[in-house]
Amino acid sequence: MGRELPGDPASLISPAGEKPGAGSLPDDAEVCSCNGVTKGAICGAIAEGACDIAQIKGCTNAGTTCGGCLPTVKQLLASSGVEMSKALCEHFEQSRAELFQIVQATGIRTFSALIERHGTGRGCDICKPVAASILASTDSDHILHRSQAGLQDTNDHFLANIQKNGTYSVVPRMPGGECTAEQLIVIGEVARDFGLYVKMTGGQRVDLFGARVEQLPLIWKRLVDAGMESGQAYGKSLRTVKSCVGSTWCRYGVQDSVGMAVDLENRYRGLRSPHKLKFGVSGCARECAEARGKDVGIIATEGGWNLYVCGNGGQSPKHAQLLAGGLDDETLVKYIDRFLMFYVRTADRLQRTAPWLDALDGGLDHLRAVICEDSLGIGEELEASMAKHVAGYKDEWAGVLEDPEKLARFVSFVNAPDEEDPTVQFDDSGARKVPVLMGMPAVRTGEAE
Ligand code: SF4
Ligand code: FES
Questions:
Q1: What is the distance in A from the centroid of ligand 2 to the CA of 61?
Q2: Which part of the chain is CATH 3.30.413.10?
Q3: 417 and which of 249, 304, 398, 411 could share a cystine (Cβ 3.0–4.6 Å)?
Q4: What's residue 199's pLDDT?
């Protein structure tokens, strides 16, 4: 930040040194870049009586946009001596991890039973999606199964990502970035026939934009018939396992990174988690798959696989850290099973793996002890939970297509199911199709004529 270091530089790099936290920032350091809120403004609000995140948001606007600054805001609250509530929301005084344990121990399978016995009121847009995620992580019910459907947020509700003009994007799964020529042709035909905008994602798959809600089942019928399944780009779940071509094609490859990526994506697809999960597998130390930027990163060595965990991109990028090295295939999968289930059980709502590790008592050493040395004696239980998930996996879109009750949800107007939403419009006049918002001109920033 172009400032004097807050202390002895050695303390910044020494494992034994004290980590400088948010408290060591100067008062005019910007903590929330979305809303231009400084540390001084946040500390001022705390001094005037703001004693939780909601009150700080209300007084300062910090954390009200992308939320990326909230971990720092929490640090400032904690360092000011305020006792932090672990309550999930006003309806549950438990944390997400505690609710997970309750659901597991009691076998409760509905939100109404959960809130009746362990919460108060009727729930909100914080606790309902959390409960939906926990219910999905602990059993293999379809996420639109009966009362669970009403708990889902917008994207999960329609098994697609809503875009700015109310249309949706469609992402079929391509395990390890692999796809047959026939499937690619079907994707192209679907895009042409439904007039969809096509864009490659950073996770080695194809995103189709601009589908109206009533078109989603028609689109997915063709994709499912071609052997594809939901990529769950809409879910807090496993997204992609990115891979390089590895030893099968690359002259430098020392292990089959594509084969491993495909196996891992097929194993963990559908796993609902506190936040999205991304993997990468590289066939040698040159790291073409950028695995160390992922929640789970695997890099091949002559002797096996090195496993890195808790890397994230996004607003606060973090490199993944080495959890274990020189692993054979079986041990690698065992450790990933344990790691993922431990994260799914203990993380906060919307907490990605990097901030989860930052907040974990004992940090990486503790995580390594739990995963590799089974220090808590829960290794077999975590593996059994993952085995149950793997055995129960079913494609969510195939589940919709075979159920008239679920299919009936995919309409713009429940009282006029054949009507299209007249407010959905596009502009096709430029180099690429763009959505048009009602009463506003099309936004075509940076487009070459
Ligand atoms: S990471 Fe290694 S094996 Fe994979 S493409 Fe790059 S050089 Fe080849
Ligand atoms: S809301 Fe604070 S950085 Fe985005």
A1: 9
A2: 168-392
A3: 411
A4: 96
Quick check: helix, strand or coil at residue 388?
A: helix
Task: Determine if ligand 1 sits within 6 Å of the CB of residue 53.
Answer: no
pLDDT band at 430 (very low <50, low <70, confident <90, very high): confident
Separation between Cα atoms, residue 142 and residue 158, nearest integer Å? 13
For 139, how many CA atoms within 13 A lie in the half-sphere containing its CB? Answer: 15
What class is the 168-392 domain?
A: alpha beta
Residue 448 clears pLDDT 50, i.e. is over it: no
Q: Determine the pLDDT at residue 438.
A: 73
- Torsion sign across C-alpha atoms 13, 16, 21, 26: negative
End-to-end CA distance of the chain: give it in Å, rounded: 39
Please name which of 206, 207, 205, 208 lies closest in space to residue 177, comparing C-alpha atoms.
Answer: 205
CATH code: domain 9-79 is: 1.10.10.1100
The rounded mean pLDDT for the chain is 92
Query: Does ligand 1 lie within 6 Å of residue 407's CB atom?
Result: no
Domain with CATH 1.10.10.1100 in the chain: 9-79
Nearest bound ligand to the CA of residue 251: 1
| pTM (2 d.p.) | 0.88
